[in-house]
UniProtKB/TrEMBL annotation:
Designated name of the protein: CRAL-TRIO domain-containing protein
GO molecular function, one term: phosphatidylinositol bisphosphate binding
GO CC, alphabetical: membrane
Organism: Chrysodeixis includens
Top-level taxon of origin: Eukaryota
Pfam families (alphabetical): CRAL_TRIO
Family matches, as Gene3D superfamilies: Alpha-tocopherol transfer, CRAL-TRIO lipid binding domain
Record domain CRAL-TRIO: where: 172-267
Length: 323
């Protein structure tokens, strides 16, 4: 089996602009395999095993699992086959179980298109020396809709699932322009589902969560997040005053030059490259396809779903102790 066989979604060129957006290069996968002491044959066997498992799950949408999706999950889970199976199940199931967060996503929607072009999410193509990705979120306009900003982040996450070759993330949140209106848009269910989808569906390895200029009212939202976060993620939370302070822990070489970094790229160039990818016919069609065909039939499930037991819809309020 060859990695990336288009055995699902005919003519789906998922890697559009990946070299510019994520600095994906030939040989990236081989370097990862070497890091984990895995041969190409062993990887092919893993993908075959996961596909065979998937085809035996009557509740999952058959014919919708691309080999590169499997590889994406394997990379972020350190090539653990069993963890990969669990995350794939969670990924498909969450699309229906969290419709407020995951349905109706389109890079053409007014808000998501605006946030994409203006750089609410800035994801530099350069990675750290440890092969970690830096993801920057910043609030530009006081009228920002939190839900739409989160939806855009997950659109970008789907693109990364098909193309990413990093093995860990540092997330940087700049709250310099945050308002009380933004804080009031959060509720326990939204908080729980955002965290669940990041950690249990994409299953990203969060190496650091860096909060810059968090206002006083933002600490109550942070307290809610901490109630549902894994202890290891809480330990990786760091607060800073002033954007420059982030360069004490993350390399300037990764950040665009108009954000104080030394990388030879601007925020606009980064955003333009992301627009070229997500607004392409290929990826717009994928998001439409995803909403139409990524359907899970829970009545056919032969094993218990873990979504409701953790941070998903049913578990949101049970998990959060709001007294």
């Amino acid at each position: 089996m060859t990695i990336g066989d288009l055995n699902v979604y005919p003519n789906f060129d998922y890697s559009i602009n990946a070299h510019k957006v994520l600095n994906v290069r030939d040989g990236d996968i081989e370097l990862l395999l070497k890091t984990y002491s895995i041969t190409r044959k062993a990887l092919d066997d893993m993908i075959t095993s996961i596909r065979e498992w998937y085809e035996k799950q009557p509740h999952l949408p058959q014919g919708q699992l691309h080999d590169r999706m499997i590889l994406g999950h394997l990379i972020v889970r350190g090539f653990s086959v069993e963890q990969c199976k669990e995350k794939i199940d969670n990924y498909f199931a969450s699309l229906e179980r969290m419709p407020d967060l995951l349905a109706g996503r389109s890079p053409l929607s007014p808000n998501m298109g605006k946030y994409l072009r203006e750089g609410y999410w800035v994801m530099p193509p350069m990675k750290t020396i440890d092969n970690h990705r830096v993801v920057i979120f910043r609030i530009i306009n006081p009228d920002m809709v939190v839900l739409d900003a989160a939806k855009l982040g997950f659109l970008m996450g789907d693109y990364r699932l098909f193309n990413e070759t990093s093995n860990g993330d540092h997330w940087v949140f700049d709250f310099s322009n945050a308002t009380l209106n933004h804080a009031l848009q959060f509720n326990p269910m939204l908080i729980a589902n955002i965290y669940y989808h990041i950690t249990s569906c994409y299953a990203l390895k969060l190496k650091g969560i860096h909060l810059i200029n968090l206002p006083t009212f933002g600490h109550s939202i942070l307290a809610l997040f901490k109630k549902i976060m894994k202890s290891k993620h809480v330990s990786r939370l760091h607060l800073y005053e002033g954007f420059e302070s982030i360069f004490k822990v993350l390399p300037k070489e990764v950040f665009p030059k108009d954000m104080g970094g030394t990388a030879n790229v601007t925020v606009k160039e980064i955003c333009d490259n992301w627009c070229d990818a997500l607004l392409s016919d290929t990826w717009r069609n994928f998001y439409t396809h995803q909403e139409k065909y990524f359907k899970v039939d829970e009545n056919k499930r032969i094993s218990a779903s873990k979504i409701g037991d953790t941070f998903g819809v049913e578990g949101s309020f049970r998990k959060l102790d709001l007294d």
